[in-house]
Input
Amino acid sequence: MSDIRIITGNEAAALAVKLAEPGVIAAYPITPQTKLAEVLSEYVESGELKAEYIRVESEHSSLTVCMSASTVGARVFTATSSNGLLYMHEQLHWAAGSRLPVVMCCVNRGVGAPWSIFNDQQDSFSQRDTGWIQIYCRDNQEILDTIIQAYRIAEEVYIPVMVCYDGFILSHTMMPVEVPDAGTVKEFLPPYKPHTFLSPNDPKTINPVFFATRRENSEGILCDGYMEMRYKLQAAFEKSGDIIKNASSQWAEMTGRDHGGLIWKYMTEDAELILTGMGSIATEATLAADALRNEGIRAGVVGIRAYRPFPKKEVVQAFRKATAIAVFEKCISYGYEGGVCSDLKAAFYGTAIKAPVHDYIVGLGGRDVKTEEIVDAARTTLESIRAGKTDNKITWLNCYTGAQAEDNGWGVIRGDPQP
Amino acid sequence: MHENIFKINEKEYILPGSRACQGCGLSLAYRYILKALRENTIVAIPPSCLCVLHGLYPTTPVIVPALNTTFASNAASASGIVAGLDALGKREMTVLALSGDGGTYDIGIQSLSGAAERNTNFIFACYDNEAYMNTGTQRSGATPQGTITTTTPILTKQDPKKDFLKIMEAHHIPYLATVSPAYPIDLYDKFVKAKKIRGTRYIHIDTPCPPGWGFPTRDTVKIGKLAVETGLFVLFEIENGRFRFTGRSKTMAERGKLLPLVNYVKKQRRFKDMSIEQLKKAQSSVNSRWNEYLKRAEG
Output
């Protein structure tokens, strides 16, 4: 008999962590992650979850505690948001460079300054190049399932995994979530058996200073230099795509729930217009696609689930028939454009895909994005491309851009609010 | 004191050929620390002279397991090691975080304070060589007033050394002690004692540094002894709040006479531009702290 509960995203995440049975949890509170840290402490204090819970004095320390606990062989968990994630930045690199299977939730929130406690994805996007796998969830069920998958992935490929979900939109919104039984999770995720751990039985100095060149050890064996170590991380990323897909499909076989491996598709087979994005904005885009279909426009959606590794092959396959592409994203690389847009165009380069890509920067700092706004934007994209315009375009959707908008030609769609 | 030398663990945990400087006070201290803590020990290391001592991959002269971490995070890293070992039921291990003064007084204070407040079951030892020696003698929060460093090259450091022992004492940890590699038996005894205590134990190591302080490499022990004999560095321990002089400082307290601070100052190039006023101020602060300790020892 299935166990379906009406719970928030944070509660779904906490349940997943409990089922994954980490030995060590460390967390520091930050909105909107807070409830997750609270529920986990309740599980530990009540004895429902046997784990060491370290209530650290900062996010820098929460990730450090997890890394060092992982180094001695424990399964670990932490979670944060926004500036908390940025405060971890140094340790994010350290965790990936150490090849530790840390699993962390990033409950996505805008970053300061100025302060915003509300949702966008600039926090995790800005940590893209730290060497973590990043998976974005579209609903609360996917949060629960992805955290369990994340341990499988991390412990197989020795890359830390960041499970990202939108603050408030998912973290504080209740949805029905099916909770798997402990037996299923145990079968899918056996206890962690590290290939290397720090122990007096085999004394090692871990992460000492490396030279750029390769060097011989005391037995005359030539060992890696810094660059070989870095290459190995990239090589692990290259095989991680298949590991993510396998985890996803095996979980689907066991539970009947398939969230897609690296990407998911919604009515894309015959689509002339494809909307795309990461997380809950992509879920909302499916409603927009329905509305566009009602108008007779063949629209579909591709959800980017894994942002790193970037699913190059999969997106080329998914977008190959589109004549118009509209990206909706809650992050930007200042001085250029949204990250998903850049990566898609780079993936398309040299392929048969010639469709213009329109980039819509949306929902920063929690600005509401209505389905009809997505519909209007996508329709505008399709119409301009049908009219023969081939330029790639960036638009700040539902944002007052004033005189500047006219100066540099960046369009403002409707709902342009006055200051 | 001579007979005590025979009780020291004969095993060496640092093999010949470390990358530390000639006459390094840290090397001497570390040798006796590891002898005291023995095999079942894991060491947490931040970027510092200790990281250099541990060597370049893939070789190390040290035969205890060690984990390097980032500068700010050494106490948190040790917390993680302790938590991981607890989670796996390996409770017989000693975890030592060994940081320099920069990694303790400055960038490391947040994670250390957090770990001490949680009474994390580990030893945090600060090897205080009174500046950022690994990067070439830049001023730290532990540098004394009147010191020439590479970032106070002309005017000398204007601010007095932070009173870190008071900060750590305010965390009400079960054990706090000071040691000097110039007095290895006192150092050894305190680490042996610390190993048996549960909770956060803080040990402060006065660590003479020939290149950073500007004295001949053969004088490390001599300078270390002068620091104690002038009362600038006092050997003591505070166990569950109870203060006790130890070793040479105990003898000094009983005799009631300290050497003048100038004996220590004049032997080091780093103090060459110290003003008479700065020296007087330093001497008076040594005197008042010494009197404070004498009172505490009576009480």
Observations:
- The mean pLDDT of chain B is 96.
- The CA atoms of residues 205 and 248 of chain B lie 15 Å apart.
- The longest strand of chain B covers residues 94-100.
- The beta strands of chain B are 41-45, 66-68, 94-100, 123-128, 175-179, 201-206, 236-239, 242-245.
